[in-house]
Amino acid sequence: MKTVAQPACRREIASRIAELTPSDRARWGSMSVHQMICHQTEAYRYVLGQKQVAMAGLPIPRSLLKFAGLRIPRRWPHGFPAPPELDQNRYGTPPVEFEQDRAALLAAFHEFCAGLPPQLPPHPYFGPMSPWDWQRWGYLHADHHLRQFGR
User: What residues contact 2, with CB distance under 8 A and at least 6 apart?
Assistant: First the structure.
């Protein structure tokens, strides 16, 4: 299973981020490519303890959703709502300048890959996460949104 702990996977994601352009159009969802860049940056910053995100209410057990999201080898479904603090149409940090925001995403991604903090936060939907869980999520979340924009 791919995780950002694997150097080849880190290079793959960083390369795909570098290929993004302001003219990329979403294949699904309501975010622009620029909003997606900011969304991804904030998600990594949350894990690094640089942003607060509340736990989401769920109608199913978190452990079941976590197992399905991280362990079942299938692409994530489209349309799963982001937590409000990471939702670009609600409380997410708005885009400023494309190249600057893309550089911020790459910096947050590299910081995330370089080492997780000793006190890991819970995932807003999945609940408690191990370092492996976060590394797997780090790959899958990026892959999901990069595919959203054809990358």
Answer: 9, 136, 139, 140, 143
SS3 letters across the chain: CCCCCCHHHHHHHHHHHHCCCCCCCCCCCCCCHHHHHHHHHHHHHHHCCCCCCCCCCCCCCHHHHHHHHHHCCCCCCCCCCCCHHHCCCCCCCCCCCHHHHHHHHHHHHHHHHHCCCCCCCCECCCECCCHHHHHHHHHHHHHHHHHHCCC
Q: What is the pTM of this model?
A: 0.95
Q: What is the CATH number of domain 7-77+97-146?
A: 1.20.120
List the domain boundaries for the chain. 7-77+97-146
> Which of these, 113, 112, 134, lies nearest to 123 by C-alpha position?
134
pLDDT in tens, 44-101: 999 999 999 999 988 899 999 999 999 999 999 998 889 999 988 898 889 999 999 9
Q: Band of the pLDDT at 2, cuts 50, 70, 90?
A: very high
